[in-house]
Amino acid sequence: MLKLENIKYSKNSNEIIKGINMEFEEGKIYGIVGNNGVGKSTIGYIIMGLSDYKPNDGRILLDGEDITQLDVTQRAKKGISLLWQEPARFEGITVENYLKLNRKIPREQIEEALEFVNLEPNKYLKRFVDKKLSGGERKKVELASCLLLKPRYLIMDEPDSGIDIMSLDMIIKVINRFKEMGSAVIVITHRKEIALSCSYSYLICAGKVFLEGTSDKIVEYYEKTCDTCGHINYLEED
Ligand SMILES: Nc1ncnc2c1ncn2[C@@H]1O[C@H](COP(=O)(O)OP(=O)(O)OP(=O)(O)O)[C@@H](O)[C@H]1O
User: Fold this and answer.
1) Residue 37 CB less than 6 A away from ligand 1
2) Does ligand 1 come within 6 angstroms of the Cβ of 40?
3) InterPro entries under this entry (predicted)?
């Protein structure tokens, strides 16, 4: 169980995250939804422990252990991973070696992971993970990499961004695959189909959890209210 307790985060004297509480259990899919700029990616970076995203207050607990002060590498060793909205490029490393990452992974497993994300192994294993891969191809390679990593907790920041609409079913299939593997998936998304494939969702508004519950309830509320809201909740409360 991963728990955020009253997490607050400020940047340049702006309070971006204003005391949020969240819980994530392994083997479940969680959605984080909300308008642009409300703090969704920031929450993901805080969970991952990126150096610029240390909370000013609150605690992050992993199975009861306080991991708030652990850095990104220490958290990665404990099984927390992040699928970046725009994964980095690397010169001179092939898709095959990138997916292996110094681990002894049998070739068949690498091929299987590539096939799972609709990339033909014959075409892609020897390609480089550099700028010559399209944004969508790079994202798919990253999804394959996450599948091979089998994280306990995977934060996915807009997994469909840059990926063609035809691949939406694949992304939902990948998310469900993580669930079957026993991972907790925390999906930051604007895509209704993806939000509805989560079992539980958090609606973020102006740096707070405004509403939480089953994803159908949250999506329905979001569609009815947030599109035209203009942060009414924020203005009322502050
Ligand atoms: N390093 C930073 N320095 C200054 N402001 C920041 C920083 N990181 C985030 N912010 C601000 O914090 C707010 C929340 O940003 P965040 O990227 O978390 O939003 P989001 O909900 O993920 O938005 P989107 O849906 O557009 O991706 C925004 O107003 C953003 O400009």
Assistant:
1) yes
2) yes
3) AAA+_ATPase, ABC_transporter-like_ATP-bd, ABC_transporter-like_CS, FeS-cluster_ATPase_SufC, P-loop_NTPase
